[in-house]
Amino acid sequence: MMDTAQQIVTQLAQGDFAAVEQRLADLIKPLLPVEALRASWQGIEQQVGAFQELGKTSAVQTPQGLVQVVTCVFERASLDVNITLNDAGEIVALTITPVGTVEQQANATYEPPSYAHPERFQEQEVQIGHGTWVLPGTVSIPQGDGPFAAVLLVHGSGPQDRDETLPPNKPFRDLAWGLASQGIAVLRYEKRTKVYATSMRSERDTLTVKEEVIDDALEAVALLRDRPEIDAQQIFVLGHSLGGYLAPRIASADPQIRGLIILAGSARPFEDVILDQMTYVLSLSMPDPVVRQQQLAVVKKQVELVKDPSRLPTAAAADLPLNVPAAYWLDLNAYQPEKVAQTLKQPMLFLQGGSDYQVTREDFQIWQDALGGRSDVQFIMYPGFSHLFMPVEGGQKATPATYAVAGHVAEEVVNEIGSWIKRISRLPPT
User: Fold this and answer.
1) Does residue 85 form part of some domain?
2) What is the tens place of the pLDDT at every residue in 104-119?
3) What is the extent of the structural domain holding 405?
4) Active site residue: 140, 181, 241, 355, which one?
5) pTM above 0.85, yes or no
6) Which residue in the list 155, 240, 387, 408 is annotated as catalytic?
7) Structural domains counted in the chain
8) Which terminus of the chain is more solvent-facing, meaning fewer CB atoms within 10 Å of its CB: N or C?
9) Final residue of a domain: which of 80, 103, 126?
10) pLDDT value at residue 63
11) Is 387 a catalytic site residue?
């Protein structure tokens, strides 16, 4: 794999961006078209001078997989090109960082936030599900006599680990440790698409969010319900991003779930969210407006296909957003999260970061318009917070680079969730 990584960097240095694009895995191919690769590499050379030579190549194990790190010498600086390959040798991640960044992040010890008190809880490893798709997880149990109210954490998009790690941050561990410190049990787990990334390729053409998210979340709730330390009548689901979008669907499949906490949950059609994200990210990374519009035209055409019920069923994955097959989109087209939420009897808490560029105030407003008249539904906007509910410097709109800044989920967010769960737990179930 090291030879492959060096070949990829050589192709970048020689300007053979089409060859690099051909090596991209389907999932990220729409995010890194030829012009985006060219613009990124040329932007680097404008900052640090022309590429000179390859330096050392090393392999660094990270929570997201094995990263091949190729140090590149430019005229005025050296930088690392970090490449993650799948079993087929395709690129699933490609970043350029200061020398040693990936290794530092991989070796960094998790520093708990000040609101986490590990002496107040214990953690146990668990297995979620049965048969083919057993998933490892961690349950954080408060010290003392139970039974305790519990919350399940449901991830956002992509092959997430149990901590929802986005180096150097671990927002789900922050939430788990913070809430367990307040006397609330928390279950978090590895996502199916991370644990079984290779074997799920055969399922790709028929995959929907049911297999990706919902089935495993329901299994995890069932696991909590069977544990003696847990109050089976007080199990909550906290969904972040995609997990928040799907939380009403999870609750509709299990009416005994006590309540929902939705963090930055999108409410607009998923393809519209993708288009908005692409528009914003390309505005930052692709200064040439002509090239940018060309790339967006491709995405817009893909979005139009998702919205066309006559053509979508037979559409090829290559013609759809993120190269995701039609079955996935057909399933989502039949789902309106705010409409499903209106049918639920459970109380709900919606939290949104004001500086979030992935899920926006527009999504938050849709939830409010649909549910704002209910006394058991609460909405809180946090100005200046990112998609990870961490403060953004200056309170400006977040960018992809924002996520590289080390931080923790804000204490006020954790406290609000903890207080809400405790308050709802004291009320009689509806």
Assistant:
1) yes
2) 877 777 899 999 999 9
3) 118-269+332-426
4) 241
5) yes
6) 387
7) 2
8) C
9) 103
10) 65
11) yes
